[in-house]
């Protein structure tokens, strides 16, 4: 009974402190420590003397309370050091193992032309490409002027289609000269079957097919240029896709120099104006290497594919409905697909008109609330600087954008290509003022011969290299004939050897650098 009474009295004495919500009292006298600073906001400073009744020989000790820290009810304060806890993993962690395809995937595939019933399986295979073709693209391919079902090749393995490549014959302009060529596109292999050489077999089969149809040179636009280079293809350069904000592009164009001359009218095109658009295209395409030599039938097929959204034309004169451009002459155009500007060309007689057409494209983009446009053209196009602006790394500094892809090429018949270039070579010799006879030999694994220019005419002699000649690889010969080789740079890099100093200088005069441009409109899927 006495113990219970004492405990009751102690509880009554401590009850005022326990009635408050968790008051922590820190003493500076206890344990000889300095008063700790509270991490939470204290309610004030309380100074008091606390005395305990002496029991036995214990003396009364006065304690000074410096601070009172108030915490919410239920807070537990622990003075024990924190232990390192193991991180909680919500997903199972599997060890990284090397990817080894099954044995049946490593077997040699069989490449053959696709059958009529393979369309759905091919479309499913190509769905993983950045620009996957739709069903409309398969139907449009049948209407191509040079359509041949044998130009679509597939790789089969155990009865299943594991790869695809398409060969598209077309005539290509090389320095204004039309050369029979072909383009391979949509090279794809199933992800689980990659690494077994199926892609190389597809490209080899496509090369055989291009030789059969009489192509002298082949082109391709790809993001795996090293793989093509291993197969003997030459890397020519890259196409350029520059993004920009329409409002910023428009302000830069308006602040820059303005075109002087008669004002032009711009509007959406009419189908009867396709010959005028084709005329402007041919006026500009002769300055490049790689554009398609578009005929009127081929151009109408491009329009029927509907691989574009709008075509803007620039007219000089009174805008009337006219079939023969008697009252209003078309002097420029721009082809768009979504926010992409695929082609923008102007008549060479009106310099600076390209900037006006680009300004109209940006104005329409602002009206349609488009936050970005992508200008696609050759890397040498000066409009890329207007689109990118001064705050973006330009083409001159080697900036590469996410949409850029490399253009690769391979010569199948170098003699035919050199004979096609002979008139242009003779014209360059005449322009340089060289009156004596010049001869340049070429010694490559796939071609050995020379070109001789005398009396304003150029002739090609196979099997003869002469005294001044160049020894070079097959891919370097492709770059030289296609105007993408600098002989001095190639010689310094060890890709080219010249028998005399005259041969190296003569090569720079006969085969100068020419801007590269492969229009995107021809390869854009419907």
Description:
The chain has 14 helices and 21 strands. With 526 residues, it is an alpha+beta fold. The chain folds into four domains: 2-53 and 60-70, no CATH class; 103-215, Aminopeptidase (3-Layer(aba) Sandwich), CATH 3.40.630; 246-371, Gcn5-related N-acetyltransferase (GNAT) (Aminopeptidase, 3-Layer(aba) Sandwich), CATH 3.40.630.30; 414-510, Nonspecific Lipid-transfer Protein, Chain A. The strands form three sheets. Strands 4, 5, 6, 7, 8, 9, 10, 11, 12, 13, 14, 15 and 16 form a 13-stranded mixed beta sheet that branches. Strands 19-18-17-20-21 form a five-stranded mixed beta sheet. Strands 1-3-2 form a three-stranded antiparallel beta sheet, with no helix packed on it. Residues 6-54 and 391-398 have low confidence and may be disordered.
Report the radius of gyration as a whole number of Å: 39 Å
| Contiguous helical run count | 14
CATH-derived architecture of the largest domain:
3-Layer(aba) Sandwich
How much helicity do the residues have? 25-40%
Blueprint (SSEs and pairs):
Layout: H1 2-19, E1 23-27, E2 49-50, E3 63-70, E4 110-113, H2 119-126, H3 135-142, E5 152-157, E6 160-174, E7 177-189, H4 198-212, E8 217-222, H5 225-230, E9 234-244, H6 246-255, E10 265-268, H7 274-285, E11 289-292, H8 296-304, E12 310-317, E13 328-337, E14 340-346, H9 353-367, E15 373-378, H10 383-388, E16 405-411, H11 414-431, E17 438-444, E18 447-454, E19 457-462, E20 469-472, H12 474-481, H13 487-492, E21 496-498, H14 501-510
Parallel strand pairs: 7-8, 14-15, 17-20
Antiparallel strand pairs: 1-3, 2-3, 4-5, 5-6, 6-7, 6-11, 8-16, 9-15, 9-16, 10-12, 12-13, 13-14, 17-18, 18-19, 20-21
Helix pairs in contact: 6-9
